[in-house]
Amino acid sequence: MSHRRVAILISGGGSNMVSLVDSMTRDHPARPCLVLSNDAQAGGLAKARDRGIETAVVDHRPFKGDRAAFEAELLKPLEAAQPDIVCLAGFMRVLTGDFVSRFQGRMLNIHPSLLPKYKGLHTHARAIEAGDAEHGCTVHEVTAALDDGPILGQARVTIAPEDTPDSLAAKVLLYEHQLYPSVLRRYVEGNRSVLMLP
Ligand code: GRF
Questions:
Q1: Which one is predicted more confidently, 146 or 30?
Q2: Residues designated catalytic
Q3: Domains of the chain with bracketed CATH
């Protein structure tokens, strides 16, 4: 049985991409087929190349506010890689409903909050500011609405009184690296039940 092909989109260091890539070995039914970034300086690109994975860059800046034109370029290497599943992993560009609709039902994202709380940015600071007792991360199917699709998994951490946004982000990131690979494997295997960690 041939492996399912997973493309991963990144914008930065790619620690989630590394966790996903390093999980797709041995009896895992999927393999990475492309790591694609909107930023040529993304640190994750070197990590992907070190792992022998094809990479591509489509810089969003030349397209200024023309999101559709950027996405038309982004689609070229992405469709050429013929992915069965697309994972957004620290990908910091908002995608239009048209782009998402091409991958509806086979595109995942990880967001650093317990959705539906704290969609958007600065999630760790917002949780601390709100005085929440806990925080965490969510893997969800991507739909046209930002950070809003069906939840596939969540991981919870407690917020300690001494936590800063940076210390909390570091705690959550460790759980992201467990949650995303676990959810991806279940997803590839057709399991849509919600995974709760720990
Ligand atoms: C992380 O905070 C993650 O929650 C969000 O993007 C940030 C960077 O992730 N998705 P990575 O190290 O580039 O995977």
A1: 30
A2: 111
A3: 1-103 (3.40.50.170), 109-198 (3.40.50.170)
Calculate how far, in angstroms, residue 14's C-alpha sits from the geometric centre of ligand 1: 7
Among candidates 140, 169, 141, 172, which has minimal Cα distance to 155?
A: 172
Which atom of ligand 1 is nearest the CA belonging to 112? 4
Q: Which residues are CB-contacts of 162 (< 8 A; sequence separation ≥ 6)?
A: none
Q: For residue 75, which phi and psi values (nearest 5 degrees)?
A: -65, -30
Amino acid at 23: S
Name the β-bridge partners of 137.
155
- Model-level pTM greater than 0.90? yes
Q: Is the CB of 20 under 6 A from ligand 1?
A: no
pLDDT at 65: 86
